[in-house]
Amino acid sequence: MNVYVDSILLLSDLRVVLAIAAGTILGLVMGALPGLTAAMTIALLIPLTFGMPPIVGIGMLLGGFCGAVAGGAIPAILLGIPGTPSSVATTLDGFPMARRGGAGRALGIAISSSFVGGMIGAILLFLVAPPIAKFALKFGPAEFFSLGVFGLVIIASVSGGSVLKGLFAGLLGLFLATVGSDPITGVLRFTGGQPALITGIALLPALIGLFAVGQVLQDLTSVRNENKDAGGANDIANAKPYWGVLWKAKRIVAGSSLIGTIVGAIPGAGGSIASFLAYDQAKRFSKTPEAFGTGHDEGLVASETANNAMAGGALIPVLTLGVPGEVATAVLMGGLTIQGVRPGPALFDQQATIAYGIFFAYFIANIFMFLIQLFGIKIFVRVLRVPPKFLTPSILMFCVIGVFGVNGNFFELWLMLGFGVLGFFLTRFGFGTAPVILGLILGSLVESNLRRGMLIFDGDWTQFLIRPISATLLLLSAVLLGLVLFQRRNDGEPAPNEAQ
Amino acid sequence: MINGRILFNLTLLICSAQGFVLARDLPPAFSPGQIGPGLFPTIVAGLGVLAMIAILIGDLRNGGNAPSSPIGRRAGLGAIAIVGLLIGYIFLIALLGFRISTALFLFLGITVCSLTTATDQTERSLTPKSFGIAALTATVITLVTYSIFTYGFGLNLA
């Protein structure tokens, strides 16, 4: 009980509340801009949190995460362009509703659905995460090694255009994680005589380079639609909560929230799958399935409830196992690590106040997300009209500030640029960037536990294969990899750019 | 035919092979049963080489021309120019400090993006007015950002 009180007291600091609010606003703005992803939002927010106490910084990152996921609905409804991948299904009914002159109603339903979905996801996170973490406390080096392999296989399987390319990207991240002084023997590895690399490749320039600079370059070279015609953008006076619509669709709300949370908790599944799955289920059980796709309330409710519940679900594997399941949470995990928080089973044991503080901060972030959208929707709609010519250089400037402002290290700026260019090509040619960052984050976990395990087991590597949890995780990795390869072979590999 | 995709694959293959060679040169384990500092990167780089060979073969079988959205000449030049500006920006921060280099980067960045991102022909034309707007925007963004980050977040942007 004390830990709950302590975490609530931790959040009672006004700075925490302000940081969550600021993060949510920035997240909503970024989410509302097509092309700017939740991952990029968090990557750009991380440098701002450096001077902050951990819980204040974490609050800001969580606010940014919540806001970016919810903000994606705004362009999806007004422009028919999803702001984030998780709001793709929102376009199906949101945009037709806006075109019919119901932009305000569509935004209102999206705002209230996002709030309800987000809160249900937060409650499920609160209930489910601690028991999983308790179970994971039984993990030893073999289990952690296998968990790292499992996480990499999952994200490599789903994030790139092809499984093999995703795996290569994960291996690239693992290799980059070995740069610097070897933690056990102190031998310098792959530093090329560069003193800045002795402590390894800094996570921040890699994150910002891959997810912000790379994304900007990607946006510059892709076909874009000018954001001039925000369909019905002036008709937003009706953007108010539609509790009646949600009550009427209560089964859809419950089902979509559950689908969203479960899909979010499955590493690798992601928000777009959650919202499409929920949308499909809602249509299947609806009395008016023919109305779906024409601006139907139920379609909008299903999509928005699911993708916001997904955000809560996605935090479950991050906080309990230290394995992010998709890009945004991989970046969020990087941010938490930089803040001194070690996501994983030990979090609930050694940093319980912080762990529960994260839960409560996530609840607050959802409330802010609702209130800020409700009262500030006009501002977020205006964000859509900012021309890309002002946005692109400004984002790059923030990238430079983010990396340089923290410790004034020019080498890290070059590193950021290098990762940006690498990220651009990796994305363009279907490798994906998420496995690289996950490899970079999980690299030390995988290597150190492999080496520690070999030491404990006296060089007997078969222990990794015969210990039940470790064996299960390795078997799951192999089965999943086989399944994905088999499915892709049958379907034909997707074109690299389609996967992005 | 060697295209961008194959060239990129080849670059990654060479880098992986180089990583493998470098990892093999690292000292061995200090005692039996232990893993030395080179084993893990050797395995990772080795797997990387194998994966890259398979990817390369797959892409060559597809003729190296698996569909990807083509980059227009204007958009490509815009991206190269932005990377060039970013390189210049990093150099200039060391020479001129944050404020002047940022204002310059933003001004040139807005100008480049005006030429490359606008779909409208009239918006692509550079007039004294558009230069004025770019200069004003660059100055305002620089000063506001500098003030917020220096005095608000306590970052050292000298």
TrEMBL record, chain A:
Q: What are the entry keywords?
A: Membrane, Transmembrane, Transmembrane helix
Q: Would the keyword Membrane turn up in this protein's UniProt record?
A: yes
What top-level branch of life does the organism fall under?
Bacteria
Q: Where would you find the membrane-spanning parts of this chain?
A: 20-46, 58-83, 103-128, 196-217, 258-279, 354-377, 389-407, 413-443, 464-486
- Domain DUF112, first and last residues per copy: 18-438
Pfam families, alphabetically? TctA
Keyword Cytoplasm, does the record have it? Answer: no
InterPro entries, per the entry: DUF112_TM
- What name goes with this protein? Tripartite tricarboxylate transporter permease
Q: Which organism is it from?
A: Ahrensia kielensis
TrEMBL record, chain B:
DUF1468 domain ranges (all copies): 11-157
Keyword Cell cycle assigned to the entry: answer is: no
| Keyword RNA-binding listed | no
Instruction: Specify the domain of life of the species encoding this protein.
Output: Bacteria
Transmembrane feature ranges: 39-57, 77-96, 102-119, 131-153
Keywords recorded for this protein, A-Z: Membrane, Transmembrane, Transmembrane helix
Alphabetical list of InterPro entries matching this protein: DUF1468
Pfam families in the record, alphabetically?
Answer: TctB
| Name listed for the protein in its UniProt record | Tripartite tricarboxylate transporter TctB family protein
Please name the source species. Answer: Ahrensia kielensis
